[in-house]
Here is the input.
Amino acid sequence: MNTNNTINVASVVAPVLSSRDVISALKTDIAKIPTQEIELDFTAVEFVSRSAAHELLRLKEWFATQDQKKTIEFTNANEEVAKMLRTVASNRAIPKTPENAENIKTVSINDLETKPTTLGFLRRLFAN
Amino acid sequence: MANNDTATRKVERPQNENLSSQLVALYKTFRGIQPSQQVSFDFSLITWINPLMLLPIGAHIQTTSGNYSSPSAISSYLSAIQFPHGVDTIDALQQSKTYIPIGVLKRQADVGRERLESAFLHLLTTTIGDTPGSRNAIYYPISELTTNIFDHSQSDTGWILAQWYPNKKFLDLCIVDRGRGLAATYQEELGLTLTDDEAIRNALQGVSTKKERERGYGVRTSKNVVCKALGGSFTLISGSAAYLVEQHSEKMVRLPQFSWPGVIIGYRIPQPDGPIDITPHLE
Here is the structure.
């Protein structure tokens, strides 16, 4: 349930927050609240993806820079959700150097095929 | 029923149950088939089948109005997972008693899509057993990889299928879209002309098509959670190339005469036997 300046995230969106685009549902609700301080209540939110956490942090920053300068506070987040928000926030400050994928060897699809054996034949015969 | 223009294609049986064998069988099944070609898939060689094989076939049938024929060995399974059309409501998802049906995620469903995905994840953890401290590791790759569909692919639909094997204690999962694929995404968003192989490498390196510099983590971190945190295997197919990690060995695979319009991701994870901290893999 939402109260005057509190939005229950699980009931407005879902218990698992995956997608960036659905965070816009919260943006609309936040904009409608006339108070300057808004509470996003994460009670019953089980999990927040990295992408959704990033979008939530951007949302918080965006409202802070608008004319009304709304302050958004994240409350009642479980330990895992809080950890995800902290991880993404710290990465926003100091991004890590990405892995190098240039050296991954390229093979033909034929290289993945194993030569048929009697044992393999029997395994397939009795599979499941 | 097949019309005169419908090609018939036998679904290949994988040599064994490894992800690489499934990739080979998927390749042989779709080799030479055009993305919009109507096909009648013949399952007569199949006595068991994994999500990586089944979901792309279902998505192809759905988007091209194709069809299929199946022997009795797998027909009850296909029916139980609602192949090929899947379900797009929470009620239909939860009605299934034996298997988790194919989940169909629709862009326009918005918050409804998020709730369907939440219900899918709940059903999944109920099915495989909710090992304390492991839920994040199960949820993370699914949530990141499905959000990529709606962030990047320009596809309005995503498909997801999971299958838990209680005796073998592993979970197979597949996520599919039939959008523009990685190479076209880099071309259209950044003006980069890349082969499918190069586009997959870029995605793995985190080259984002978005302006914010802290974007582009989804594929790489999901692969790391699957392979490093959970000890699983992983494949990503786009266009005519695939990336495969199996037994900690990674490779790019050329897929001549094969072209998937979008992205197919398949992975296998063993049942977690204790808490898993995914934080080191999130960067």
